């Protein structure tokens, strides 16, 4: 096995179709996810590995052999990248991160857009859950640090904004919208016998455009391009990285392959420091066995009851104080070997935020935060699921060790 780090740059947009079928209330319209899932990217890498192996050794793989042997292709890191078109290489400054759920974009009384925090505090109204879970009801509730009308959030933040947020920077002016724009492609059906278009058989497909205008200055356009940064385990039976374009997403749209430095995935300088409370932001979706509740966390009786468990890279037990989790992702796909749908999986979306304190009241050290950077949490480690970004958090004093 060898480690391979490279960027995938879609050249004609990318369509990663969501779960809605073609025959819905909007007949003939296909919707794309705003960003491809890690499983989609790993599937493309497994397909590319098989093609490389067959080309190198002059063999033909059966579907069953292909599925079995390509399982060794593991997606270890998965991040978004953005740079100005024409820049020679990607750096850590080009990294883009999912917007954390504890950030709210608001329009204040002066008409200015700002970012404010959701800070968890003890107490609050009871929730409507599927069961009577007193430990869940005892979790702290988030409260906004400032007033204002909530506005829609972008999909990503740039590196500098995310590092400042994780470091505990105060509320600030809102950054620019950081979302690749979509477009709609119109297609028509072709009659097999006449090789001409069929009447009334148009359909459209939503495509995420990975090239866009960054700025216009005196009639001069500055373009930017988005990419997928991946680090994967690449079996040695295929030589080197994928050669030539790689098919990705719906209709296997072509993506260029560009080598990356492994330092692109390390923690930023100056982020990690000792902190009494820990904030974990999901950089990729997470798969937990009990939905939103992390694995290895159990209810511990007390006044109030609480969830106690362990985190990757941290030896001491921790207490879950709060969880800001958006709606779950329902993920399925098509099994190309068995020709049937795969079982649906339920994920916690990227951007969800969890807040912790150590059970004994000690601080989280700078070394522990550094070890947590992009550590895998929960299931799906081979698919880069559950990778986390650690940040500082200052809980209320009376909550420590409670």
TrEMBL record:
Domain of life: Bacteria
InterPro entries on file: CRISPR-assoc_protein_Cmr3 (IPR019117)
Pfam families attached to this UniProt entry: Cas_Cmr3
Protein name: CRISPR-associated protein Cmr3
Organism: Myxococcus virescens
């Amino acid at each position: 096995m060898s480690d391979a780090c490279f960027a995938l740059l879609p050249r004609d947009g990318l369509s990663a179709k969501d779960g809605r079928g073609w025959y819905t209330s909007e007949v003939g319209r296909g919707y794309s996810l705003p960003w491809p899932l890690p499983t989609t990217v790993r599937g493309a890498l497994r397909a590319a590995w098989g093609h490389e192996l067959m080309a190198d050794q002059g063999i033909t793989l059966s579907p069953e052999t292909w599925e079995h042997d390509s399982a060794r292709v593991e997606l270890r890191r998965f991040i978004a990248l953005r740079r100005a078109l024409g820049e020679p290489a990607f750096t850590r400054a080009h990294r883009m991160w999912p917007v954390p759920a504890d950030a709210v974009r608001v329009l204040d009384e002066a008409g200015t857009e700002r970012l404010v925090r959701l800070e968890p505090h003890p107490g609050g109204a009871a929730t409507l859950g599927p069961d009577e879970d007193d430990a869940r009801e005892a979790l702290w509730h988030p409260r906004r640090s400032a007033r204002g009308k909530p506005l829609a959030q972008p999909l990503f933040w740039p590196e500098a904004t995310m590092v400042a947020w994780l470091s505990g920077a105060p509320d600030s002016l809102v950054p620019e919208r950081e979302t690749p724009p979509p477009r709609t492609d119109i297609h028509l059906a072709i009659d097999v016998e006449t090789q001409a278009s069929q009447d009334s058989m148009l359909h459209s497909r939503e495509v995420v455009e990975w090239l866009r205008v960054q700025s216009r200055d005196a009639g001069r356009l500055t373009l930017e391009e988005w990419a997928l940064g991946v680090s994967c385990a690449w079996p040695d039976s295929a030589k080197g990285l994928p050669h030539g374009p790689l098919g990705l997403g719906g209709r296997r749209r072509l993506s260029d392959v560009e080598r990356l430095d492994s330092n692109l995935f390390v923690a930023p300088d100056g982020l990690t420091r000792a902190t009494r409370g820990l904030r974990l932001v999901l950089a990729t979706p997470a798969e937990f066995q009990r939905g939103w509740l992390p694995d290895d966390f159990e209810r511990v009786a007390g006044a109030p009851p609480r969830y106690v468990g362990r985190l990757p890279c941290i030896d001491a037990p921790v207490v879950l104080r709060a969880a800001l989790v958006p709606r779950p992702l329902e993920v399925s796909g098509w099994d190309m070997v068995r020709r049937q749908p795969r079982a649906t999986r339920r994920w916690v979306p990227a951007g969800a935020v969890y807040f912790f304190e150590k059970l004994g009241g000690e601080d989280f050290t700078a070394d522990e935060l550094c070890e947590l950077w992009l550590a895998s949490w929960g299931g799906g480690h081979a698919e880069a699921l559950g990778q986390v970004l650690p940040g500082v958090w200052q809980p209320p004093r009376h909550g420590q060790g409670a």
